[in-house]
Amino acid sequence: MYKVSRFSPLVSVVRHTVITLPTPINISTWWNFGSLLGVCLVIQIFSGLILSLHFTAHTDLSFYVVIQSFGDVYYNWWFRAFHANGASFFFIGLYLHIARGLYYGSYVFKEVWSVGVVILLVVMASAFLGYVLPWGQMSFWGATVITSLFSALPVIGSDVVIWLWGGFSVDNATLTRFFGLHFVLPFMVAGLAGLHLFFLHDQGSSNPLGVSSDYNKVAFHHYYVLKDLVGVCFFLGPLLGLVYFNPWLLGDPENFIEGNPLVTPHHIQPEWYFLFAYAILRAVPNKLGGVVALAAAVLVLFYMPFSPKTSIKGLSFYPGGKSLFFSMIGVFFLLTWAGSKPVEEPYVVISQVLSFLYFAYFILIGPVTRVQDKLL
């Protein structure tokens, strides 16, 4: 019995993935976010399944079902608060994971990086669809504004919008298909995460020094398993604190009002994790240009594996590159701030300047590090 279980394909995969996997001995805490994102994904799928058992995708019922389930279903408030705040922590982990990859040059592993960017896109789509489901004011008008952007596409734009809506306005058909897609996409993310891990284990992990670590590796278990478990505890602490003490801190008060197509909120804005892209969208006066800039804000990550190569992976030994990187981090936070402000001066001009600086980073980082290579 022992021999059968030991050499079964499933046990072999698990063994090579989390036990005997050769791992660079010098990777830091920044490499913990991959496992933390896996934990977040499991939390989101499980809590979402529980919430779906008591949800009705209908414009006349959704808002009231969500409110009623707070009092009528045991611990439904906890699952909803955990699901909503878990999404925010998921994006915190995603953004930190991407920032680590940009700083330490993980994008040189083209397959790993490309699948990771696809995961980001699918998670963003799933988060947007989920935000619409409670059918509050910001949910309804957010869905209306974002889906209307597709009308900027030449020739097919209007047809795409009608297809997304399932009619000539955001209505019951829209909510039904958004619920179906929101239910399916997390499982697609799980499949992509498996592919991401497959390529990662095939090509190996990077490390803070950016040099080959083939001769300086240890088995993943037990040191890195315990290290990841400690990281999970530190990650879940603030999440649980938010759930128990201030569960709606990151939400919008407008979403506690039922969606009304006759009353437009004074200031329509998405959740905080989309604000940087929203600011870039508003920075371009032309509608089609804004849509292109919005898409480019994320799709530009696909360019990184093809940027000019450097002698050493990452920016640890490139002072100019490090200055550019931390400047870009500052620009990202400022874009998030600008996206939360009304569409008026001086916020429009500020968004335009910050958008230019955001894209300038991806253009300049390669040449700047190459120049330092030649100087050294």
From TrEMBL:
<dbReference type="InterPro" id="IPR005797">
    <property type="entry name" value="Cyt_b/b6_N"/>
</dbReference>
<keyword id="KW-0472">Membrane</keyword>
<comment type="similarity">
    <text>Belongs to the cytochrome b family.</text>
</comment>
<keyword id="KW-0349">Heme</keyword>
<dbReference type="Pfam" id="PF00033">
    <property type="entry name" value="Cytochrome_B"/>
</dbReference>
<dbReference type="GO" id="GO:0046872">
    <property type="term" value="F:metal ion binding"/>
</dbReference>
<feature type="transmembrane region" description="Helical">
    <location>
        <begin position="323"/>
        <end position="340"/>
    </location>
</feature>
<feature type="domain" description="Cytochrome b/b6 C-terminal region profile">
    <location>
        <begin position="210"/>
        <end position="376"/>
    </location>
</feature>
<dbReference type="GO" id="GO:0045275">
    <property type="term" value="C:respiratory chain complex III"/>
</dbReference>
<keyword id="KW-0408">Iron</keyword>
<dbReference type="GO" id="GO:0008121">
    <property type="term" value="F:quinol-cytochrome-c reductase activity"/>
</dbReference>
<feature type="transmembrane region" description="Helical">
    <location>
        <begin position="178"/>
        <end position="200"/>
    </location>
</feature>
<dbReference type="InterPro" id="IPR048259">
    <property type="entry name" value="Cytochrome_b_N_euk/bac"/>
</dbReference>
<feature type="binding site" description="axial binding residue">
    <location>
        <position position="97"/>
    </location>
    <ligand>
        <name>heme b b566</name>
    </ligand>
</feature>
<keyword id="KW-0479">Metal-binding</keyword>
<feature type="transmembrane region" description="Helical">
    <location>
        <begin position="221"/>
        <end position="245"/>
    </location>
</feature>
<keyword id="KW-0812">Transmembrane</keyword>
<keyword id="KW-0813">Transport</keyword>
<feature type="binding site">
    <location>
        <position position="201"/>
    </location>
    <ligand>
        <name>a ubiquinone</name>
    </ligand>
</feature>
<keyword id="KW-0679">Respiratory chain</keyword>
<feature type="transmembrane region" description="Helical">
    <location>
        <begin position="272"/>
        <end position="302"/>
    </location>
</feature>
<comment type="subunit">
    <text>The main subunits of complex b-c1 are: cytochrome b, cytochrome c1 and the Rieske protein.</text>
</comment>
<comment type="function">
    <text>Component of the ubiquinol-cytochrome c reductase complex (complex III or cytochrome b-c1 complex) that is part of the mitochondrial respiratory chain. The b-c1 complex mediates electron transfer from ubiquinol to cytochrome c. Contributes to the generation of a proton gradient across the mitochondrial membrane that is then used for ATP synthesis.</text>
</comment>
<dbReference type="InterPro" id="IPR027387">
    <property type="entry name" value="Cytb/b6-like_sf"/>
</dbReference>
<feature type="binding site" description="axial binding residue">
    <location>
        <position position="182"/>
    </location>
    <ligand>
        <name>heme b b562</name>
    </ligand>
</feature>
<feature type="binding site" description="axial binding residue">
    <location>
        <position position="83"/>
    </location>
    <ligand>
        <name>heme b b562</name>
    </ligand>
</feature>
<feature type="transmembrane region" description="Helical">
    <location>
        <begin position="346"/>
        <end position="366"/>
    </location>
</feature>
<feature type="transmembrane region" description="Helical">
    <location>
        <begin position="86"/>
        <end position="106"/>
    </location>
</feature>
<dbReference type="GO" id="GO:0016491">
    <property type="term" value="F:oxidoreductase activity"/>
</dbReference>
<feature type="transmembrane region" description="Helical">
    <location>
        <begin position="30"/>
        <end position="55"/>
    </location>
</feature>
<keyword id="KW-0999">Mitochondrion inner membrane</keyword>
<dbReference type="GO" id="GO:0006122">
    <property type="term" value="P:mitochondrial electron transport, ubiquinol to cytochrome c"/>
</dbReference>
<keyword id="KW-1133">Transmembrane helix</keyword>
<feature type="domain" description="Cytochrome b/b6 N-terminal region profile">
    <location>
        <begin position="1"/>
        <end position="209"/>
    </location>
</feature>
<keyword id="KW-0830">Ubiquinone</keyword>
<dbReference type="InterPro" id="IPR016174">
    <property type="entry name" value="Di-haem_cyt_TM"/>
</dbReference>
<feature type="transmembrane region" description="Helical">
    <location>
        <begin position="140"/>
        <end position="166"/>
    </location>
</feature>
<feature type="binding site" description="axial binding residue">
    <location>
        <position position="196"/>
    </location>
    <ligand>
        <name>heme b b566</name>
    </ligand>
</feature>
<dbReference type="InterPro" id="IPR030689">
    <property type="entry name" value="Cytochrome_b"/>
</dbReference>
<keyword id="KW-0249">Electron transport</keyword>
<keyword id="KW-0496">Mitochondrion</keyword>
<protein>
    <recommendedName>
        <fullName>Cytochrome b</fullName>
    </recommendedName>
</protein>
